[in-house]
């Protein structure tokens, strides 16, 4: 299950991702925004990330204007490893090496076609583990300092 979240700026891209996941038969839960009315990205990030932290969803996909604000918010939440990506390599390697569990996208930065490619590679790439596990564990340690 994938948790989808956005603010107003990310709403159109979130809707496109929803349609894409439906076409691919991938289950999701839409945590809002539900329209283009102005809404603040920090708590929009939390609504979707809470589903990941609870274990209901494996990953979150979060959209705002730049992808940056919502990634900053997501990374404040214990247990979330969010990556703001604009290119295929980063979306792939943040899964392979960082075990990222939230992909953040900027609706005003990248086009829909590119965004959907990033969604696909993010969702279909497994964490490599090995030496990367130690570093991911250290990320969790930082949350407790
Ligand atoms: C909203 O206008 C915009 O600031 C927000 O979507 C995001 O880009 C912030 O990082």
Structure, described:
A 5-stranded parallel β-sheet has the order 2-1-3-5-4, with helices on both faces. Helix 1 links the parallel strand 1 and strand 2. The longest helix has 14 residues, at 11-24. The protein is an alpha/beta fold and 145 residues long. It has one domain: Sugar-phosphate isomerase, RpiB/LacA/LacB (Ribose 5-phosphate Isomerase B, Chain: A, 3-Layer(aba) Sandwich), CATH 3.40.1400.10. Helix 2 (41-53) crosses helix 3 (68-74) and helix 4 runs parallel beside helix 5 (112-124). The relative contact order is 0.17. The chain has helices at residues 11-24, 41-53, 68-74, 88-96, 112-124, 131-142; strands at 2-6, 28-30, 59-64, 82-84, 102-106. The protein has 6 helices and 5 strands; from the N terminus they run βαβαβαβαβαα. Bound molecules: D-ribose. D-ribose binds at residues 7, 9, 41, 64-66, 68-69.
The first-level CATH class name: Alpha Beta
Instruction: Report the major sheet.
Output: 5 strands, parallel
Secondary structure: helix percent: 40-55%
Ligand catalogue: D-ribose
Strand content: 15-25%
Q: Within the CATH hierarchy, at the fold level, what is the topology?
A: Ribose 5-phosphate Isomerase B, Chain: A
Q: Kindly state the mean pLDDT as a whole number? A: 98
Distance between the termini: 31 Å
Q: Output the strand order for the largest sheet.
A: 2-1-3-5-4
């Amino acid at each position: 299950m994938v948790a989808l979240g956005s603010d107003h700026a990310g709403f159109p891209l979130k809707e496109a991702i929803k349609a894409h996941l439906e076409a691919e038969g991938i289950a999701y839960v839409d945590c809002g925004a539900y329209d283009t009315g102005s809404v603040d990205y920090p708590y929009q990030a939390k609504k979707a990330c809470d589903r990941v932290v609870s274990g209901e969803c494996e990953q979150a996909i979060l959209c705002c204007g730049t992808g940056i604000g919502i990634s900053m918010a997501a990374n404040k939440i214990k247990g979330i490893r969010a990556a703001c990506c604009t290119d295929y390599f980063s979306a792939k390697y943040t899964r392979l090496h960082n075990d990222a569990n939230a992909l953040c996208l900027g609706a005003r930065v990248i086009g829909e076609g590119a965004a959907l490619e990033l969604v696909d590679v993010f969702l279909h790439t497994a964490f490599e583990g090995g030496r990367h596990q130690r570093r991911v564990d250290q990320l969790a340690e930082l949350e407790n300092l």
